[in-house]
Amino acid sequence: MTETKDDRLTRLPMQHPYSLSKAERLTGEKNVQHLFEEGKSLIAFPLRIVFLQNSTQTEPIRVLFSVPKRRFKRANKRNLLKRRMKEAYRLNKQMLHESFTLPTSAQMIAFTYIANELLPYSLIEKKMREALRVLQETWAKNAV
Q1: 4-42 pLDDT per residue, tens
Q2: What is the pLDDT of residues 40-67, one digit of tens each?
Q3: Burial class (CB in 10 A: 0-12, 13-18, 19+), 110
């Protein structure tokens, strides 16, 4: 049986549980500015987490990864650190999604790297897990 072009278009892509799709990324200057102006902040060194509840977005959690140019002048180092943070989040985001039980609201989250030196991936992943756990606990306190 042959597949037509319409069949391919109507089929939904499979969403892998460990993917980080474009829809899950926080974009738009207004959204980012609103997040940093109104959001609450936590620190799990070397990460600073800014989060804000947003009821207008479709995805339950949207994330942003940032490495300041002030700390790392070379773009290749900033990109390396952002890749490491994205990978650590991608592999551990399930613990955050499992605890997120508010269907009517959504969260915007920004992860900013605040250390002055390049840290290995293993340490970044460990700290990302710790940051997600702290974020879970904060959401649980605010929900009660």
Answers
A1: 544 444 443 446 677 777 888 888 999 999 999 999 999
A2: 999 999 999 999 987 777 778 899 999 9
A3: buried
> How far apart, in whole angstroms, are the C-alpha atoms of residue 135 and residue 140?
9
The answer, yes or no, to whether residue 113 has pLDDT greater than 70, is yes
Of 94, 92, 95, 100, the C-alpha closest to 125 is 92
Interacting residues of 102 by C-beta distance below 8 A, sequence separation 6+: 143
- Count how many residues are written for the chain: 144
Domains for the chain: give ranges and CATH numbers. 22-143 (3.30.230.10)
Torsion sign over Cα 83, 100, 61, 52: negative
Residue 144 DSSP label: -
Query: Among 66, 49, 61, 69, which residue's Cα sits nearest to residue 134?
Result: 49
| Helices and strands counted in the chain (H then E) | 4, 4
